[in-house]
Amino acid sequence: MVGISLEEALDLLEQASRIDIKVEKLLLHAANGRILAKDYYAPISNPPFDRSPLDGYAFKAEDSSGASMDRPVTLKVKGVVYAGEYYEAEVNNQEAVRIMTGAPIPKGCDCVLRQEDTDEGEVEVQIYKALKPFDNYCFKGEDIKEGHLLLKAGEKLSPVKLGILASMGFQEVEVRQPLRMGLLCTGDELTPIGEDLKLGKIYNANEVMIQTKAMELGIQIQVLKMQQDTPEAVAKCLEEHWDEIDLMVTTGGVSVGKKDIMHDVINLLGAKRLFWRIAIQPGTPVLAACYKEKLLIGLSGNPFAALANFELIIRPVVAYLTQDEMLKPIHTTGIMENEFKKKSIKRRFIRAYFEDGKVKLNHNNHASGALYTMSLCNALIDIPAGSTGLDIGEEVKVILVDTRG
Ligand SMILES: Nc1nc2c(c(=O)[nH]1)N[C@H]1C(S)=C(S)[C@@H](COP(=O)(O)OP(=O)(O)OC[C@H]3O[C@@H](n4cnc5c(N)ncnc54)[C@H](O)[C@@H]3O)O[C@H]1N2
Ligand code: MOO
């Protein structure tokens, strides 16, 4: 079998990298999707005071005893309190305060009656309903109690979590800086999109695919442009940008051909080779090296192989480097609805459509160089080494690839 196992490769990558993700302070609106750098505790309670959940009247519940439409109780309206205001005076028996939703409940009151159950009187109010203490009463700290651990270091910020921080008065938040990834697609045959395609050339599908995949993971991606497909030019380009990135990814040039230059590139850089070739297909010839404690991972140039390499290798490495558990591949199992035959006994990942526990092969082009059929799929099926295919009804291991960033 050619190459080390996928699991051994991931271990080697994890052991080799020593990057230090820095912390920065961001205004809340700029921090969505970022990873918290520290624990956040509630500096105040929310709501910060006992408040009314209704527009109505606040009073002592005991004063409404026996009240009904037929036998209303009359209370003196002592004042009015709006949301954002504070009613200072103590409210006594037989008194009420006109209160609006969100306003602090005045001292002495222990309930609020909605205005629809009164005559809405301004000087005196007729109460049509009896209440118990703390009916329609929203307590201080009902949402969040002061001192409560709100969010933990390592959590990913979302609009709801940012709203919680805002409710606590935080203006800024300490987050980890995003992982910086460089991307260089090698190959003389590559034509930048927008230019005319000459004979023998192809458009560069990998660049935007890997770039946007990385963006989905919250990575700060820097796309490098190659001048010439030579080991010297590529090594120079990588070296020039090495200090600006935490992880470098390339595509193409990792196999055995005369222009498979990435082997020479790592030698020219003086990088330490970690492995070449993994016992999987597609994407067998992945090449990994470590240079100045950062990883250089050379993915196969075939677009589907590059995508599979990204999901199987780059994604877990990024999850490890950023300590973001959410980025890890999602593994599940499914039942085959079609059969699949293969000649090689190599461990193979094929593209498929997974839904409700069922795995469908809705196409028959599984080639590494074919990308289109991946657009009909949302999963990779892990066919173990030794197997020559899958039968209808067989349970298989599934990795979901497009359900979340
Ligand atoms: N004699 C052998 N030949 C090959 C072997 C082998 O073991 N012995 N392995 C094959 C396997 S498996 C793969 S995978 C490919 C990997 O090749 P490279 O990673 O070195 O990639 P390239 O040769 O540069 O390109 C492969 C293929 O993909 C196209 N390509 C490259 N970059 C892009 C891009 N950015 N966008 C779209 N398409 C791209 C390129 O034109 C080639 O067709 O090697 C096999 N060969
Ligand atoms: O490993 Mo390659 O990706 O078969 O084509």
From TrEMBL:
SMART domains reported in the protein's UniProt record: MoCF_biosynth
Pfam families per record: MoCF_biosynth, MoeA_C, MoeA_N
Ranges of residues in domain MoaB/Mog: 182-320
Record-level GO BP terms: Mo-molybdopterin cofactor biosynthetic process
GO molecular function term, any single one: metal ion binding
GO cellular component: cytosol
UniProt cross-references to NCBIfam families, sorted A to Z: Glp_gephyrin (NF045515)
Protein purpose: Catalyzes the insertion of molybdate into adenylated molybdopterin with the concomitant release of AMP.
Protein name as annotated: Molybdopterin molybdenumtransferase
